[in-house]
Structures are given as structure tokens and as C-alpha cells.
Specification:
Blueprint lengths: L9 H7 L10 H9 L4 E4 L8 H9 L3 E5 L3 H13 L4 E4 L5 H12 L5 E4 L1 H4 L2 H8 L3 E6 L14 H4 L2 H6 L4 E6 L4 H11 L6 E3 L7 E7 L3 H9 L6 E5 L3 H13 L4 E4 L5 H12 L5 E4 L12 E6 L6 H8 L9 E7 L1 H12 L3 H19 L6 H7 L18 H4 L6 E2 L1 H13 L6 H8 L5 H5 L16 H13 L3 E4 L4 E4 L1 H9 L4 E2 L22 H18 L3 H4 L2 H10 L4 H4 L7 H22 L15 H14 L4 H8 L3 H13 L18 H14 L5 H6 L6 H15 L1
Parallel strand pairs: 1-6, 1-7, 2-4, 2-5, 3-4, 5-6, 8-13, 9-11, 9-12, 10-11, 12-13
Antiparallel strand pairs: 14-17, 15-16
Helix pairs in contact: 2-3, 15-16, 19-20, 20-22, 24-26, 24-28, 29-31, 31-34, 32-34
């Protein structure tokens, strides 16, 4: 399946092939960096558009792009979506028959694919090396790059061996991609792959469309069913701690009439794959799963993620909620929290030893702090964990207005001075050498062996807290930590008093907090509304047609069009082929293949209801935002605006203005005399002349052939400027 779409720039591929008008944050910079053959690490949140960062360069490079991914399901998904957009791509992995595998290799050998997806263990074989040795490998993309780092949450030893591939193919530029990497993990990735620090791009981890909520777990099944009824006929994932819990919850929900299936490693392979396929293709709405589910799923229309049990770490939690709302539409993330869940995880951690135990306990403590915090914006600890300051400097408010803590009435605090003093006193009298569990045992008068062995049954604080439950005491202990009265240190989480606690004990200062968790907190304002207004009845008709087409083609519905695309159709009522191309996610190939089927439905519906075609607030046209801007830039330049003034006006780099002006000339326009482009060029006069001659011989549609003709001696930035000079002289 050859790629026949004529392309002139990343922006034209973005619009004509993938159907998007504008780049997301950092996409353009990453793509330009890769095209300039600079090794790059890109850290972008789930749903942030990482795939386009290598798919667009793959269509501009002359040779092959290899994408390394540990996720077999994701390979198939990506290839299906690329083929639907008219891009020749294939994957090679263990799921293929011998004949299909051999045919795929032959397609690659004949240059009939632009992208090849492989697992690391597949890539690191003599068979694949022999295939690639005979080809031009231009781009090596390492997806899920956090797997390289032992500090990551999903370390895979075979990823460490990918540096051998880099050594074997030194001319190939390398792009490493990940959605979840702390500063320490990023440092490990760049060091392992030998990247320059300056070639690291880190997008914001803030997923603004996700509503984040934590609720005390009381009656988990009833809470879950109430939550699910808010998402009728919509897709979602429920995460459980154990396989047994998955099976029990899935059975209970199915018995209540919910469209649900289980997923965990204990199922037979064929059943697990069948259930996953049913979820991806919208044949079932809800997947109840362990954390094994979701890594290879690129389903964009997941409208909710519910954590039935407490995650082990904040990093894992962030990754799991990141599977919601990948299409940018609103999604809801609910975590049901209980002290019993924390205690269960703590028991499993106690079976570990040494550094492994210390790290696991540290992760759990961070997770519990997050779950029990009812004051601070949920995004603050999440983003801080990944090294991002939130709220950002200069923000007008500390509230995101899209989480429970920012949209609920602040918790009512009560005077807990007496029990707090008892707790702090007991920490001190036990010598500040024990964790919260032992202190609570002493307070509640336990006859545990450890209490008796240390003769803590003889202390004045022994048994003075028998009126409170263990859960209440633990809840109070967490508040003492959060409020800075005690600190927790060491492998065994030993508690010690801070100066604030000593001062409070001396002065008997009042301490405020909560003794009981509250299941429902009243909301003081509505969550931020990010959903676009659209015709829900028309959307339902379009979704039904999408499902029919997807079933006929044997692909997931979102491969045809995403929910976001259908929402725009149901909001703007496009009734012509040109208008349809204005809809986000509608590229040239999809418009030809599926456009008529959707236009028939939209047109008939609008005629019946008397609805005219609408234009968006940004006055959508047949050209992209980038396409419209080049005219404004060219006209402003001809009116006397300088490069510096245009850069300031549009808040872009010089290279972007140069691109706009080049497109302006290519469209048949002329630029004023007395240009100031030459000041941007850093190469020698001889190199400039060689580049201009190369553009004369090779044309100006692509920069890469000229870059190759000059053996990379002139940078992409200089070549962009020299192309503009050549065009202006020739016009």
C-alpha cells in the first residue's frame, strides 16, 4: 500500500493525512528536532499525541522508520489506524503465522512500508538485523522508553539492549517516547541512550479534561453501581487489586445488567484476548481488570476509570487514569479509598526486604497521603511527583476546578486536641523508635507480643485510646503527618516528633482535624465544563454508522473516526465534502473512504430538522489554521513588518515565520524587496551557493534531499532560510 499523498511539510501531513489543524504542545518542536537528525527524548502525557512525533517524520524521511514497542496489542492498533489514514505500515511479532511474517519481511525488503513495529526481543534477532542491514534505516523510535530505566515502574531488561541497535545503525536518528517518567527516570533514559540534554522535551503532565475524585470506600459495590449509572452506554475501566476481586465484581455487575467483562492474567489466553477485543470494538462497555489491562490499549473514548482498590503507587495511578479521555473529551476518574486497602498493601510490602521494601513502602505512603488529603488540589501532588510545578507560576488561582477538592465544600474541622495529644505523647513515650501501627497498639491496650516484649504495657499511655478504633487512630496518624506534627523515616517508617509537636504539647495548643471520614462532600461549584455543545441524537446516529463500518472492516470503531470527530460533526453539521475536511480527525483518505456515508446521515438529519450548516467559533475553512496564517504573515511582511516583529506578534521562532513565508511564495505570491533573511544564516558563502544550486536541481518541495546532497553540512534551519531566499529570487 504505497503512500501517494503529496507532502510538503509536517503541517500538510498533519492536515491532509491525519485530519488535524494544529499541533499539540511540543509536537512541532519534537518533529523538527527529529527531522534535523537530533536524538530526542519526548515525555508527553497519555493522549498528548506522541505517535505523530514519529509518524510524520517517517513520511518525510526517505527510508524506513522502526518503532520498538513492548505492547503487541498496541502495535496492531497503531497499524490499523495508520492504514485507515492511507499510510503503509506493518508489524512483525510472535502472533503472526510463519507465512504472514515472511510476507511482511518481503514487503519491508521491497520498500513497501514506511513504518515497521516490532517488540524489542524481535528487533534483537539476527533475522531482523539481516533485514535492516540491507535497508536505509532513518528513524529508530523507542516507545514506552521508561522501560529502559530500573527506576521506572515497568523496567524491562531487554530494553537495555537497544543501545546495541543504536551502535549498529549510527546514521539513524533515535526518538525515545514515554508518558510517565520522573526526572530521575528521564536522566536514566538519556544516559543509557547517550542523548544530549538539550534534546529533551517534557510536556505538561496536566490532563485538564480529567475530573479526579477520591471517595471513602463504604459499600463498594453500591458505590460502583451508582457511579456506572451515570455513564450509560459509555466505555470505562474498573481496576481491582486481585484476580479474585476482578471475577467477583464482574459477575456481580453482570448479574445487575451491566455490559461488563473481566480481564486478568489468570484467564486463558483466548478468553483474555476475546474480552479485550470486545471492549475495543464497543461490543462491551465496561472492563473490570487488574493493572495488567490497558498498557496496549489506545481506545480514545474511555469516559471513566474507577479504582475499586488502592493503587500501589502514585505513578501507577497516574498511568491508569491516563487511559481515560484520550480523545480530549471530559472523563471521570474515581478512586474508592479505605484504610483496609492500605493495610492490605502494607502486609504484602512487609513480606519484602531491604531496599525493595523501603521503596514500596515509600510509594504506598505517598499514595495514602494523596488519597487522604481533602484540602489540596488533586493535581498538585500528581504533577509535583513528575517534577512539574502546579499551579504554574503566575496562575490566578490554586484551584483546577476539575477535582473533588477544588469543587467541594472544604471539610468541616473539629477539635481533636485530646486524641492528638494522646497520640503524640505515646510516640514520645515509646522512644520515637516505632511506626504508627505499634503506637496504636499501645494506645488501644493490645496484648501483642511486641508490646509486651518492650514492656510498653507499663507506659502511662497504654490503653488510653481504647475508645477509638484502629481505623480512627490510623486516620488521625496520617493527619499528624500531613500537618507536620510527626515525621516518618527509615525502612520501618519510624515516627518521631517535630518541633511543632513539642510546642503543641508544651502549650496544649488546639489541634484541628477529622476523626471520621465523610463519604459524600457537598459540592460548592460545578466542575469545569470542557465538553463541546453538540446534537446528541445526531451523535448517536453517527456512532451507530461508525460501528457498522468498523464491523464490516474488522477494526475498532475509533479507527474509522474518534468520538471527538463525531462530536464535531454533530456540532457543525458539515454537508459537503469540503466542509467535512474541516472536522478534526478527517484526512483526505478517510474523507474519500467514509465521508459519503456520514454526509448522507448528517444531510438527511439536518433537512428533517431544518438545521443549517454551522461554523465553529474559530471560523473553520478548508485550510488548516497554519494554512490560513501563512497568508496573514506574508501580507504583513509585504506591508513592512520585520521578522522580529512577526516573531513577537505570533510568539513563534524565526523558523516558523520562514516556513509561512515560503508557503506564501509557493502559493504564487511575491515578497517585497529588501528582505532581511540573510542575517539568520550561519553557514559559509560557499555552502550557501551549494545549497541554492541544490534547490535549483532538486526542487523546493522537500528539504531532506538537499540536506542529504550536502551530506548534512548545512543545518535544517539554514536550509529553510536558503529555500526562502531561492523562492523569493525565483518568484
Amino acid at each position: 500500500m504505497p503512500y501517494n499523498q503529496p507532502v510538503t511539510s509536517p503541517a500538510s501531513i498533519l492536515k491532509d493525512t491525519f485530519g488535524y489543524d494544529t499541533f499539540r504542545p511540543h509536537q512541532r518542536e519534537v518533529i523538527e528536532n527529529v527531522l534535523a537528525r537530533r536524538d530526542t527524548l519526548a515525555v508527553m502525557p497519555t493522549g498528548g499525541g506522541k505517535s505523530l512525533c514519529y509518524q510524520i517524520p517517517a513520511l518525510l524521511f526517505g527510508g524506513l522508520t522502526v518503532v520498538v514497542s513492548p505492547l503487541i496489542a498496541l502495535m496492531k492498533d497503531q497499524v490499523e489506524q495508520l492504514r485507515a489514514a492511507g499510510v503503509p505500515a506493518l508489524f512483525l511479532n510472535s502472533t503472526l503465522s510463519t507465512e504472514t511474517y515472511a510476507a511482511g519481511m518481503e514487503h519491508i525488503r521491497r520498500g513497501e512500508a514506511k513504518l515497521l513495529y516490532v517488540a524489542p526481543e524481535t528487533l534483537l534477532t539476527p533475522r531482523i538485523f539481516g533485514l535492516l542491514d540491507a535497508l536505509q534505516l532513518d528513524l529508530l523510535t523507542i516507545d514506552e522508553a521508561h522501560c529502559i530505566s530500573e527506576w521506572g515502574h515497568d523496567f524491562r531488561p531487554e530494553y537495555r539492549q537497544l543501545v546495541e541497535v543504536r551502535r549498529r545503525y549510527p546514521r539513524a536518528v533515535c526518538l525515545a517516547l514515554t508518558a510517565t517518567a520522573t526526572p530521575r527516570v528521564r536522566q536514566d533514559i538519556t544516559r543509557s541512550l547517550g542523548f544530549a540534554k538539550s534534546n529533551e522535551f517534557v510536556a505538561s503532565f496536566n490532563r485538564e479534561n480529567l475530573y479526579i475524585e477520591v471517595a471513602p470506600k463504604t459499600d463498594a459495590l453500591q458505590q460502583t453501581m451508582r457511579f456506572l449509572r451515570r455513564f450509560k452506554d459509555q466505555s470505562g475501566i474498573i481496576y481491582c487489586f486481585s484476580r479474585r476481586q476482578v471475577d467477583e465484581l464482574a459477575d456481580s455487575l453482570a448479574a445487575k445488567g451491566f455490559s461488563v467483562l473481566p480481564y486478568h492474567a489468570g484467564l486463558e489466553d483466548h478468553e483474555r484476548h476475546r474480552n479485550q477485543k470486545a471492549f475495543i470494538r464497543d461490543d462491551v462497555q465496561i472492563m473490570v481488570a487488574t493493572i495488567a489491562f490497558g498498557m496496549g490499549i489506545n481506545k480514545p473514548n474511555v469516559r471513566f476509570v474507577l479504582h475499586y482498590d488502592l493503587p500501589k503507587s502514585l505513578e501507577g495511578y497516574y498511568q491508569e487514569i491516563g487511559r481515560a479521555g484520550r480523545d480530549g473529551l471530559p472523563a471521570h476518574c474515581l478512586l474508592l479509598y479505605s484504610y483496609a486497602d492500605a493495610a492490605k498493601l502494607k502486609y504484602f510490602i512487609s513480606q519484602k526486604s531491604g531496599e525493595e521494601r523501603r521503596v514500596a513502602q515509600q510509594h504506598l505512603d505517598t499514595m495514602v497521603d494523596y488519597a487522604e488529603d481533602q484540602s489540596n488540589c488533586r493535581r498538585t501532588p500528581l504533577l509535583t511527583y513528575f517534577g512539574e510545578k502546579y499551579p504554574p507560576a503566575g496562575a490566578e488561582t490554586t484551584k483546577c476546578n476539575n477535582c473533588d477538592n477544588c469543587t467541594s465544600t472544604p471539610p468541616v474541622l473539629e477539635n481533636i486536641t485530646l486524641p492528638a495529644q494522646k497520640f503524640l505523647s505515646c510516640v514520645r513515650r515509646t522512644g520515637e523508635k516505632f511506626g504508627a501501627g505499634h503506637v496504636i497498639d499501645v494506645l488501644r491496650g493490645s496484648r501483642a507480643e511486641k508490646v509486651l516484649r518492650h514492656e510498653h504495657d507499663q507506659l502511662s499511655t497504654y490503653g488510653i485510646g481504647a475508645d477509638l478504633t484502629e481505623k480512627q487512630w490510623m486516620h488521625l496518624a496520617r493527619q499528624m503527618l500531613q500537618q507536620g506534627y510527626v515525621r516518618q523515616e527509615g525502612e520501618f517508617n519510624t515516627l518521631s516528633l517535630t518541633e511543632k509537636a513539642l510546642e503543641a504539647l508544651r502549650k496544649r495548643a488546639p489541634i484541628l482535624g477529622q476523626m471520621q471520614e465523610v463519604e459524600e462532600r457537598p459540592r460548592n461549584k460545578a466542575a469545569r465544563q470542557t465538553e463541546q455543545e453538540y446534537n446528541h441524537a445526531l451523535f448517536a446516529l453517527l456512532r451507530q454508522k461508525r460501528k457498522e463500518l468498523a464491523d464490516e472492516a474488522g477494526v475498532p470503531p475509533y479507527v474509522i473516526f474518534s468520538d471527538k470527530t463525531l462530536v464535531e460533526m454533530a456540532a457543525f453539521y458539515p454537508q459537503s465534502a469540503d466542509s467535512l475536511l474541516n472536522i478534526s480527525g478527517v484526512g483526505q483518505v478517510k474523507a474519500r473512504q467514509y465521508g459519503e456515508a456520514f454526509l448522507v446521515i448528517i444531510t438527511a438529519y439536518c433537512q428533517k430538522k431544518g438545521l443549517p450548516e454551522q461554523q465553529s467559533k474559530t471560523t473553520r475553512r478548508t485550510k488548516s489554521d497554519e494554512g490560513r496564517r501563512y497568508v496573514a504573515v506574508g501580507e504583513a511582511y509585504n506591508a513592512g513588518a520585520t521578522l522580529a516583529a512577526l516573531m513577537e506578534q505570533y510568539a513563534v521562532a524565526a523558523g516558523t515565520i520562514i516556513d509561512h513565508l515560503a508557503r506564501y511564495i509557493a502559493a504564487g505570491n511575491r515578497l517585497r524587496a529588501g528582505t532581511d533573511f540573510e542575517s539568520l544564516i550561519s553557514c559559509s558563502p560557499a555552502q550557501q551557493q551549494a545549497a541554492l544550486q541544490a534547490f535549483k536541481e532538486l526542487g523546493t518541495a522537500f528539504i531532506k534531499p538537499v540536506f542529504d546532497r550536502l551530506n548534512g553540512s548545512v543545518t535544517y534551519d539554514d536550509l529553510k532560510t536558503l529555500r526562502l531566499i531561492y523562492l523569493s529570487r525565483s518568484s
